Amino acid sequence: MALIPSQVLRVAILLSYFSILCNYKAIDMPAHQTYGGSWKFLTFIDLVIQAVFFGVCVLTDLSSLLTKGSESQEQERQLRKLIGLRDWMMAVLAFPVGVFVVTMFWALYLYDRDLVYPRLLDNFIPQWLNHGMHTTVLPFIIIEMRTTHHQYPSRPCGLIAVCSFAVGYVLWMCWVHHVTGVWVYPLLEQISPLAKVAFFSCLTVLINIYYVLGEVLNSYIWDGSKCVLDTDKAKAD
Known about the structure:
Elements: H1 6-25, H2 30-33, H3 42-67, H4 73-112, H5 127-134, H6 137-147, H7 155-180, H8 186-189, H9 193-236
Protein name: Androgen-induced 1
Membrane topology: Multi-pass membrane protein
InterPro entries: ADTRP_AIG1
């Protein structure tokens, strides 16, 4: 039995994301005043994705609680829709995008932080908020995967959705550069156009790998748990 019910964990995680988003939006940074505002940064987009995802999780928990014992087929149908949306968001957005943001940020930060997070930002963003945006996303999503089984879509459909998100964000970055003449991330200012194409292609492949990783990890956790339960049941019989 879990020390803390998964429903309580989801509420706590949701509230933490609200706090992070509110504190981030309250920062008076020059980048927030330029074209695209916060929405040009993948970190901010990911925070919104995580907040919406855990909001859907909490709503699903509440709906499940309210429909428990109910014989209404309409309520059951609405609950199944919510569960389907929750599982799709986990598979296609929350896990691959969240893991991508954490791993890419810290890999580039450790290599040369000025490529992705210039020292000037230390004057605006406190350390705790930086970790809230770029670190805690990973343990939060792992906790969710460990406490709740999620039904993944078929792999081709999932990969198409992830690719669509990745290509959409790349096109959005290119549009911001077209309008402002400045790339969202300093790294992109330092590489040639051909290198940018290769870089974007590699990142798209990487986020697809993270999708498959999430699918495999989800199956490993829950298929393994099912085997243990079946073994314990057989011993009891």
